[in-house]
Amino acid sequence: MDKRVLQSVILLGLGIFFLVTGAQVVRAAEPLIIIVEAGSHDRIDTPVSIALEQEPKGGDNFSLIEITKTGGKVIPAQIEPGNPPRLWFILTGKTPAGSKRTFQLLEESNATNSSSIEVKKDDKTMLIHSGKEKILQYNQALVPPPPGKSELYTRSAFIHPLWSPSQKVLTNIHPEDHVHHMGIWMPWTHTRFEGKDVDFWNLPAGEGTVRFVKFISMFSGAVCGGFQAEQNHVALKTKDGKKVVLKEIWDVRAYNVGGPEKGYRIVDFVSTQTCVAKSPLYLPRYRYGGFGFRGNAEWKGAKAAYLTSEGKTRKDGHRSRARWCDTSGQCGEQWVGVTHMSHPENFRHPESMRIWPGYDNEVFFNWSPIQLEDWVLEPGKQHVFRYRMLIHEGEVNVEDAERVWQDFGDPPFVYFEDKKVHM
Fold this sequence. Notes:
Mean pLDDT: 92
CATH architecture of the largest domain: Distorted Sandwich
CATH topology of the largest domain: Beta-galactosidase, Chain A, domain 5
Oligomer: single chain
Number of domains: 2
Radius of gyration: 23 Å
Number of helices: 2
Strand order of the largest sheet: 15-16-17-18-28-24-23-21
């Protein structure tokens, strides 16, 4: 059967269905046909998106239909507002390399896109969860250090806890050996600003810190849920007093894939940093600084492991470069972990890494592009850091890690049928 005839038959059947069930159908003037090509890799439950010229007229009242040889199937989807708005959905099941799938966006009042990943905020934290399963918590309120420690360790603007699908806590804050470590956080360490050294990482120096400013957005949905938060990197001792040097936007989202039954979750973390001062921020070459992860306190010795995409471990991984690095360990009787993935568009990708090599050390991991050479953040220029975290039960499965990285670094090709361009 001709493809367009098949599509017409499916749409006629869907129209009869909505007429019988009482749902109102509002057709777009020109139905949007979306094609997804797998490319050179197999895809399994892969999140994808495409930019739209405008949001559906009915707002959230829309449906995404997958068109197959046997008929049409309504699948969960969501619209992310913006300029332009984006349609998000999951390429469910396996999509073999070299194959393609066809979808149609319909404007209608059929409520098929109820939230599966939800975001809940109070005056201290922002929680991303799926039902009773907690995924991660962002801390916008100031968190004081343990008793007896300097008040300079007080910080906001970090993620902790990060949970596994089985609800094991994967991160740690204020550990005794490095009280300034804060779960997942992203300050720079050895910097130079207006002729003075400024350390935004080692807080007891009193030279700099990072502070939460405001939430820009928060969203829940059938495909993903998350938030955007604005943060300031503040130099505390300039000649003019405290001064904001970097303005940073975190875009954090968890996807409705995996879960407890499949033993994994996927979370994307994007940091956009802009030097808003009149003077540049100099980043001399240094062994660490940037995206940091401090693992659960139980992770050390035989109860912890590192593995990079290049096959390196804690013995030889430090200062090496990789597309991904897995950090994992034992929590009680359960082995759990996080595979940290760097995007090909990141500065100096594949990025260098700070990995603690000591067998008895706890787990610390850092993407550190400044290990290679100096860098200057010029006023007004944006720098975007894109990372994905594959949160998993058990030891890392290299095949799964490679597949998820390919979804991130070399995603499926998504386009409108009449407009074969990347969107």
